[in-house]
Specification:
Shape: globular
Distance between the termini: 34 Å
Oligomer: single chain
Number of helices: 19
Helix content: over 70%
Order of helices and strands: HHHHHHHHHHHHHHHHHHH
Structural class: mainly alpha
Strand content: under 5%
């Protein structure tokens, strides 16, 4: 197999993540003003519940399959065999998941008022399984994944404006969210035949996959517990409105995190490949670049969101969601925690078959999160759930990095970290200075983001921060290439 360009992979993943950021920036402000906190809270509660059943169906197979299949991706017969084995396990787990959902709908009284919403949201479980998204990760088909996702996001956005018109249209809003995922996975069914044969008659061996898959499943369960349990516990302990406030703060944080983790995810197959081929030098280089890149983007993103939190909520969600401001402030640093934890997972722990460390960290985090939520939500409400998230993500990140640090060599991280922090200080001063003289929320946000990005970029370039120089060189080469092309024409 011809190696695809890591830079192009990263660009496609960044574009996809950027679109994942852009579309909610259009859809959520519209939906939140139509459905109000209560309607958004209902949909978020239903989605949070269904995430657990999706989790039971997926078994954490994506990460495991991506790691194992990439080792044999150059052998079509071996790849086809492992594909059919993992798909068989996944189909069985999906059937079990739907059975569990049926019993939950019948016996959990709280779910009766959400039954239609839950059924709508649950439709994506089957399509996620048969969509076999992981096979495109193995073959680094990020261009296809990006184009496909953007097309269905645009369709979903159009449907949103057509069908969500009143506060009672929250079911239609939930369907719009499901449609994008289902449509993408239907396309996957056809496109995946380029790489594998669903009906190839090869002997399958399931047992050998079960132990590692259940390790990844444990990681996924614990991760989902501490990321989705906040909304579920708020829904049970408080109101739909409280869930809506928390959702507004959490969604903004997750959108930014998605940009960073998407790039790191593109490096997982390549880092696994380098380890499998004993290409130590190449592996160390990719470790260095990815860690510097992680800090280069996550630190200014966290600080920037704290600085523009109020105008961001006003524009993103509306005045009805201003109560989410304190939660958003305390959750902003979580961006850095999650980015570093994702670096540890994608670049070190999973490629080196150390996923048990991730599992242990998630179990610790899940346990602490439930305890903190029980203690803090009755006292501080939505802010209590946000504070719990802050502490838990910090604990998880520290645990993962503790076991990963010995594999981080020659990164120049300390020198670059000082450059990044100094640039963030200058950025913060610029943002606060510009915003002080503007009252309108839109122009305040626009000016703050513009000033912050400009000052941060200029400062890191002047200080010769590694990632800034790398990005600058890439842009220069692209521009020079475009100029040469124009001259020829």
């Amino acid at each position: 197999m011809v190696q695809k360009s890591l830079k192009k992979n990263a660009v496609y993943s960044f574009i996809k993540a950027l679109m994942n950021l852009a579309f909610p920036l259009i859809s959520f402000p519209y939906a939140s003003r139509i459905l109000l906190p209560a309607g958004i809270g209902r949909v978020n509660f239903a989605n949070s519940v269904i995430e657990y059943f999706t989790l039971a169906a997926s078994l954490g197979i994506f990460s495991y399959a991506a790691r194992e299949a990439v080792r044999v991706r150059d052998d079509k017969h071996a790849l086809n065999k492992i594909f059919r084995e993992i798909l068989t396990i996944n189909l069985i787990s999906t059937a079990v998941s739907y059975c569990l959902l049926f019993f939950a709908l019948v016996f959990v009284s709280k779910f009766s008022e959400y039954r239609v919403l839950l059924i709508v949201c649950a439709s994506k479980i089957l399509f996620t399984t048969i969509g076999v998204d992981w096979i495109f990760n193995v073959h680094e088909e990020y261009k296809y994944v990006t184009v496909r996702s953007i097309i269905f996001q645009i369709i979903s956005l159009v449907l949103l404006f057509v069908f969500v018109r009143t506060p009672d249209d929250y079911v239609a809003y939930a369907f719009m969210g499901v449609f994008s995922s289902v449509g993408s996975n239907v396309c996957n069914i056809f496109y995946s035949r380029k790489f594998v044969n669903f009906f190839d008659r090869t002997k399958i061996e399931i047992k050998k996959h079960l132990k590692p898959i259940f390790t990844f499943f444990g990681m996924s369960v614990a991760t989902k517990m501490h990321t989705a349990i906040d909304s579920v516990m708020l829904g049970f302990m408080l109101t739909d409105t409280a869930v809506g406030y928390y959702s507004a703060a959490n969604k903004i944080k997750n959108l930014v995190v998605g940009l960073i983790t998407a790039i790191l995810a593109t490096l997982l197959p390549r880092s696994t490949y380098y380890i499998g081929k004993n290409q130590t030098d190449d592996y160390n280089k990719i470790i260095s670049k990815s860690l510097n890149l992680t800090l280069f983007f996550s630190l200014p993103a966290a600080i920037g969101i704290m600085l523009v939190a109020k105008p961001l909520i006003l524009l993103f969600s509306g005045e009805d969601f201003l109560a989410a401001l304190p939660s958003m402030l305390i959750m902003s640093p979580v961006i850095v925690f999650i980015a570093i934890a994702s670096f540890a997972d994608c670049m070190i722990l999973i490629p080196r078959r150390m996923e048990k460390v991730s599992l242990q960290s998630q179990i610790i985090g899940c346990t602490v999160n439930v305890i903190f939520n029980f203690l803090l939500i009755p006292v501080w409400g939505v802010f209590g759930a946000a504070a719990s998230t802050f502490f838990v993500e910090g604990i998880i990140t520290f645990y993962k990095f503790l076991f990963s640090r010995k594999f981080i060599k020659n990164t120049g991280i300390v020198k670059n970290l000082f450059k990044i922090i100094f640039s963030c200080v200058l950025m913060a001063a610029a943002v606060l200075g510009v915003m002080h003289f503007i009252d309108n929320a839109f122009f305040k946000l626009l000016a703050g983001v513009g000033a912050g990005c400009t000052v941060y970029a200029a400062s890191t370039l002047l200080l010769h921060a590694d990632t800034a120089m790398m990005l600058s060189n890439i842009i220069k080469r692209r521009l020079n290439g475009m100029l040469r092309l124009c001259r020829k024409n």
